Amino acid sequence: MTPYEFVSKLGAAVVDENHAIYRDVLLHTHADQAPDPYWQRVLTLFGTLDADQREVLLELTRQVTIDAVANVLGVIDGNCMLSDERGGLSLTHQGVELGGELQSLFLEIAEHSEP
C-alpha cells in the first residue's frame, strides 16, 4: 500500500463513512428516539435549525473530522509533536514506510473530494 492509497482509504473509512452516519442520524432520528442525553440534546438543537443551517452544521461535522484526522497524521509524519514526546513515530505497511507526507496528501485529497 502506498501512502496515497493509505490516506485515500483512511478518508473513505473515517471521513466519508462517518459523515454519512452523522448525516443519517441527524436527518432521520427524532430526539425522543435518541439512546442517551447527549444525542437527545444534539437532535433537539438540530431540530430547531432551518434547512440551510442544518447543511452548515453537517458541513462542520465533516470538516471537524478532516481536521482531526489531519492532526493525527501530522503527529505520525512528525509535523506535530505530542507534548514532552521525544523521538518520532513511524507507520509502516508490510515493511514499507508510509509516513512523512501523509498529512499533506490527506488534506489534498480531502480538498478535492468536498461535497
What does this structure look like?
By secondary structure, the chain is mostly helical. It has one domain (3-112). The chain is built from four helices and two strands, in the order αααββα. The chain has helices at 3-28, 37-47, 51-77, 102-112; strands at residues 92-93, 96-97. It has a two-stranded antiparallel sheet with strand order 1-2. α1 runs antiparallel to α3 and α3 (51-77) runs antiparallel to α4. The relative contact order is 0.17. The model has no long low-confidence stretch (mean pLDDT 91).
If strands are numbered along the chain, what order do they take across the biggest sheet? 1-2
Total helix count?
4
Distance between the termini: 26 Å
Output the radius of gyration. 17 Å
Choose one word for the global shape. Answer: elongated
Order of helices and strands: HHHEEH
> Major sheet: size, sense and barrel closure?
2 strands, antiparallel
Q: Give the helix level as a range of percent.
A: 55-70%
The counted number of beta strands is 2
Task: List the defining traits of the structure above.
single chain; 115 residues; mainly alpha; two-stranded antiparallel sheet; 2 strands
What's the topology here?
Elements: H1 3-28, H2 37-47, H3 51-77, E1 92-93, E2 96-97, H4 102-112
Helix pairs in contact: 1-3, 1-4, 3-4
Précis, in short:
The chain is mainly alpha-helical. Helices cover 65% and strands 3% of the residues.
